[in-house]
From TrEMBL:
Protein name: FkbM family methyltransferase
GO BP, one annotated term: methylation
PANTHER family, per the entry: METHYLTRANSFERASE, FKBM FAMILY PROTEIN, SLL1173 PROTEIN
Keyword Endoplasmic reticulum: no
Entry keyword set: Methyltransferase, Transferase
Annotated GO MF terms: methyltransferase activity
Classification via InterPro entries: FkbM_mtfrase, SAM-dependent_MTase, SAM-dependent_MTases_sf
Domain Methyltransferase FkbM, chain residue ranges per copy: 91-221
Superkingdom of origin organism: Bacteria
A UniProt-annotated Pfam family: Methyltransf_21
Length: 278
């Protein structure tokens, strides 16, 4: 009820000129509901959702509670895998950093999170989330992860939700961003033992996995969000990657897990894999 009420307010009032008024209304609603969130708009027009343990900064108003995000990550990204203190996690498609906040707490001060985001505005919010949440063990990197070094174009539509920007779909409006192979990033960051690779990049996983030669590092656990369900719904075949990812991991000799019986179509498109160690 709270979320739907706030969303209705956003649709009516949102915009650079009306966001401060909307933030005040949102604060009144969450106060009545007894929630610890506090909404504000910063000097660049980005939304800040501050609460105990985290501050999420986003281009769009984000109602997420930290406890809900923690439960979501345990369900979606840590399926049959326990993150340990001291682990190194690479978060490809980190978005505004809400998941990086949770990963940061999971790995603790002796661990490390590499948060990679391609879209420049979303990356700006990612850096703010990291700073305002006090995440000392998170490194933010602005680039697309692909099969070659260079530049790529990512969608940049003002009326599109920031979580769905993709380098795989043609768009009338787009912005050039740097592109790197994962190998290049890990070598630069001096990472040789990666506990988990999380990837949610709207179809670009087909490029990213081709750029992983793994000459100088190991990855113990993979969690890849494919988007075939979007292709089924919208006919955007650029996002149909699940079988390609499954074949790639099979060729690598990894043990693969899926959740094909889950009632949620997007969860059925997750691919999990791990190294088989003797």
């Amino acid at each position: 009820m709270i979320k739907s009420t706030l969303r209705a307010l956003v649709d009516t009032v949102d915009g650079r000129g009306g966001r401060s008024v909307l933030a005040g209304l949102a604060n009144g609603i969450v106060k009545v509901a007894g929630r610890d969130q506090k909404f504000s708009v910063d000097s660049e027009g980005d939304w800040v959702n501050a609460q105990d343990g985290a501050s999420f900064v986003s281009p769009d108003i984000l109602f997420t509670k930290l406890s809900d995000k923690q439960a979501e990550i345990r369900d979606l990204w840590c399926y049959q895998h326990d993150v340990q203190a001291g682990d190194v996690i690479v978060d490809v498609g980190a978005g505004i950093g809400d998941e990086a906040v949770v990963f940061s707490k999971m790995v603790g001060p002796t661990g490390r999170v590499i948060a990679i985001e391609a879209h420049p505005h979303t990356f700006r919010c990612l850096k703010k989330t990291i700073a305002q949440s006090g995440l000392k063990n998170v490194t933010a990197i602005h680039c697309a992860v692909a099969d070659a070094e260079g530049t790529l174009t990512i969608e940049d539509s003002a009326d599109q939700n920031h979580i769905s920007h993709s380098i795989m779909k043609s768009s009338a409006s787009g912005v050039e961003v740097p592109a790197h192979r994962l190998d290049t990033i890990l070598k630069r960051e001096k990472i040789t033992d990666l506990a988990m690779l999380k990837m949610n990049i709207e179809g670009a996983e087909r490029l990213a996995i081709k750029g992983m030669r793994k000459d100088d590092y190991s990855i113990r656990h993979y969690a890849i969000s494919c988007h075939d369900f979007v292709a089924d719904r919208d006919g955007t075949d650029e996002l149909r990657t699940r079988e390609e990812v499954l074949k790639h991991f099979g060729d690598m000799g990894l043990k693969i897990e899926q959740r094909l019986g889950d009632p949620r179509p997007w969860v059925r498109d997750y691919v999990y894999a791990k190294e088989v160690r003797g």
